[in-house]
Amino acid sequence: MELNTPEPAKDRRVRRSRAVLMQAAVELVTERGTSAVALSDIAEAADVSRRLVYQHFGDRDALLLEAGLDLARRELLPRLANLPQTTGRDRALVVARHFAEHRVFYRALLTGPCAFALDRGLIALLLPVNRESLRQAYGDRLAPQAVDDLATFLTGGGAAFVTAWVVEGADPLDPEAFTDRLLRVTSVLPFADGGSALTPDREVRR
């Protein structure tokens, strides 16, 4: 019989401190439009000591990176998971709306010191979503390795497309128009019609 033991108070405090710091980072970066926010300013906004920031994150860039990934985990992933009837356009539109909503914050990070790490981290978060979508679309017509490779290809390319839009797109960002652009791009790919144009199964499975 398993016992539900209470969570240690220290663990709750640690999570609470981290959450407050990440939220403060998001708010300050959004307010100032730059990732060049002093760590002391973030600590002050979160009402914690600088020592606590170093203890939890090590430095400012690590805090900003975690704040960006945490924002996607808290807001984007649940929205994707809760789509009632998922289509490719539904998923793409949810992603576009998330980045448009937080455009100032993400643009600051994607043009700052943690840009590469954030890009890699966001890809890692979205990769399982795309992998599962491909599994549902193709069933056993694709080998597991082919599904993984295709998911990696689509997620990496999509991330580059989103990054360019967030950084360089005209204000205000238009999620509907961007989603249409993305679908026009993917519609010309040979696997966009559900797999009929893919190489034969015996070749894909090699």
Question: What would you say this structure looks like, in words?
Answer:
There is one protein chain. The protein has 206 residues and is an all-alpha fold. It has one domain (9-204): Tetracycline Repressor, domain 2. The chain is 73% helix and 0% strand. It is built from 10 helices and no strands. It has helices at 9-32, 39-46, 50-57, 60-81, 88-101, 103-110, 115-138, 144-168, 175-187, 201-204. The longest helix has 25 residues, at 144-168. The protein starts with 8 loop residues before the first helix and ends with a helix. The relative contact order is 0.10. Mean pLDDT is 87; it is low at 1-7 and 193-206.
